From TrEMBL, chain A:
TM region positions: none
Alphabetical list of InterPro entries matching this protein: Fe-transptr_FeoA-like (IPR007167), FeoA_core_dom (IPR038157), Transcriptional_repressor_C (IPR008988)
Annotated GO MF terms: transition metal ion binding
Name by which UniProt lists this protein: Ferrous iron transporter FeoA-like domain-containing protein
Gene3D superfamilies linked: 2.30.30.90
UniProt KW keywords: Iron
Source organism superkingdom: Bacteria
Automatic annotation (TrEMBL), chain B:
GO cellular component term, pick one: plasma membrane
Keyword NADP: no
InterPro entries in UniProt: Fe2_transport_prot-B, Fe2_transport_prot_B_C, FeoB_Cyto, FeoB_GTPase, G_FEOB_dom, Gate_dom, GTP-bd, P-loop_NTPase
Tree of life domain: Bacteria
Gene source species: Limosilactobacillus ingluviei DSM 15946
Binding of GTP, residues: 7-14, 51-54, 111-114
Gene3D superfamilies xrefs: P-loop containing nucleotide triphosphate hydrolases (3.40.50.300)
Any Pfam family hit: FeoB_N
UniProt protein name: Ferrous iron transport protein B
Keywords for the protein's UniProt record, in alphabetical order: Cell membrane, GTP-binding, Ion transport, Iron, Iron transport, Magnesium, Membrane, Metal-binding, Nucleotide-binding, Transmembrane, Transmembrane helix, Transport
Automatic annotation (TrEMBL), chain C:
Species of origin: Limosilactobacillus ingluviei
Membrane-spanning parts: 6-22
Protein name in the entry: FeoB-associated Cys-rich membrane protein
Keywords, in A-Z order: Membrane, Transmembrane, Transmembrane helix
Amino acid sequence: MIINALITLHHFDQLEKPVATRLHSLGLTEGSTILLLQRYPFHGPVIIESNHQRIALRYRIFSILTQPPRGKFHGNRTDW
Amino acid sequence: MEIALIGNPNTGKTTLFNNLTDSYATVGNWPGVTVNPKAGRLKGTATDLIDLPGVYALTPLTKDEEVVTLYLLDHCPDLILNVTNAGQLKRNLLLTLEVREFGQPMILDLNMMDEAAQQGQHFDLAALSQALGCPVVTTNARTRRGLAQLQAQLQAHPQPLAPLKLTYPPQVEQALQQATQALTNDYHVPAPLARWLSLQYMNQNQVVRRAAAFRNLQPLLEQRATYDAQHFEEQIFNTRLAFIEKILAHGQQAPATRAATTVSHRFDQLLTGPWLGLPCFILIFWLIFKLAFDWVGTPLSDGLDALLSGPVAANVNHWLTLLGALPPLRSLVVNGLLAGVGGVLVFLPQIITLFACIAILEDSGYMARAALVMDRLMQIIGLNGKAFIPLLIGFGCNVTGIMAARTVEQPQARLVTTLLTPFMSCSARLPVYSLIVAAFFPHHQAAVVLSIYFLGIGIALLAAKGYQWYFHTTESAALIIELPNYHRPRWDIIWHSTWDKSKGFLHKAGTVIFAGTVLIWALTSFGPTGFVTDPTQSFAAGLGKLSAPCFAPLGFDHWQIITALFTGILAKEVITASMMVMFHATNQTVLIGALSNYLTPGAAYALLAFILLYAPCFATLGTIKQETGSTKWMLWSLVSSLAIAYLVAGLINLGSHWL
Amino acid sequence: MIVFTNLLIIALIVGYAGWQLTKTFKRAKKGKCAACAYDCVLKKAAASRSDSAKI
């Protein structure tokens, strides 16, 4: 995924409960559109922007939220 | 009367609190500055204002968040001031709804209006006030705009408000009504509170669930499985979100600008860039130590030292002799208090510089970035970057660092962070570092101290790896952290924070350092034979010599140094005071000269490492016990850090022989 | 007389130091730092969390 791309978030139900709760309280919900601002080497955290706020996420959370619709996901993404 | 400040993290509650009260509380630009509630007096009134930790919701995920829910239940404040970040009103209102449902009188404050205006957002305040059923005010706490009106509102007698009643999906409503009725009839809970409790119970609020279990509220306990199976919490969230979207659709205009174009973002591209992030972090700390040791701190403290040990000591001695003070009293005042307490106090400039730099980091918004930059490293050891913030706070004082660990979500990660914090080099250790580097590494003072700080971080990371192995934690500590906009540091805030912490240091000088100095003076002046003039015959020498063989492998086996290390457990500053007293040093130069005769540079570095790691001070041990709730962990912290310090210092000393 | 005054002053200083030492121990037991003068009722409420909710 490229920097400055607009991405829609899905699959909140695949996250651990507290993680999903925290994302919800930051205003990120199923179907929210975010802007990818920055990513770090070695699958480090990802900075996204939503509603004028910048939020840093673990890569793992980000990859779950942005994976393609179920069935097409093969686990190991290499396109970062 | 009691007014509580409730709001999301980093919405400026504490800045508001400081402006509205006469007291002062620490302000910072990162989520989690306030981990303890703070109380103050509203200016010119008898009203108490309580500053609570920031929370995203009343459903707590962290220990500091629990405080807010507990507070609401326990204290039921007369008025709640809900502080929100106007720039992110949508998500802030989620908490507002929960508080309005609670039903106590409330004022909604849209703070940070400047950020909202920059984003091109406008609000229809009247519509907002009507939809939420409470007064709405706007402020900008940092520039003090709107504060006069807010103050007037707070002083007026609070109007009772009916609790906000959202219409939840039929299933939820039905369950709510049943539970509310049962609670009011069988347990005599007032109806509005009963509804709120049931709602929070369904929403999986752990504090409310514990309270319900404690009070044995059967109507809720029986239905728990049903609530959870039907995902009531999701339905509740969706209803609230829909409500917020509806009321904001009236007033808010969709903003067109993007945050990515702001100054903050440009700063971030440099300071948190993918490759530059870590080097920038190290550079910032190098600059801090350069300021503290080379550019500002040391020159000033040298001046102070010259004044204190020269004219002041001579005059005091002279006057004491004139007034008829006998040698023991003169020795206590001049060689004990003046050398010891004074010897620590002269380091005030270095400590102030360090505190000021930390205050600038806190106020500017860099802390959250440090968490981000460190996250990848922290991931390796099973923690997340957010756990790094308490560690950074630990650079000021380990006790506050451990308190800040309350913001860490997972209990296990919180425990590990608590145990790691003592490896962070607190400001109390600065004076003794300063002496040792001046004696052995005069041309690389900042670099050597920086290396000690990073040695502390390195050891903490290694220890965390050990804990990860011990607890069998897999990688799960997920990082989610807001990156607030950078602020231009406000000098009065920096000054306040610096002064507040420096006052702590001065307070310690008058209490624990004073006591430690007198203790060590007594130990040095008395021996098995009574009052001794030759310190080598004293108790202090006996104690040091007895344990000297243990320290021989580390390269330092002089009784003065060893006894000083023992006293360091009182407070780390006492090490410096003790050395001054035991070496009979009238000023720093004498002590520096004495030290450089006794040690090799390798042994001196081993000593630095040992002082960094060897044992948390009493206050830190007490805090560990309190925060972990176990004596076992406190003792473990003491024993493990001693062992680690011994090992590391031994290795350094050994290594220095090979070089 | 001079000896007495001297001893008295020494005793006062040592007594104050001893008192401060015991205070340090007591504060540390509560988990507080000598530098932190702030005393807070709510902290205790948070500490005894299990039985605190008034319903």
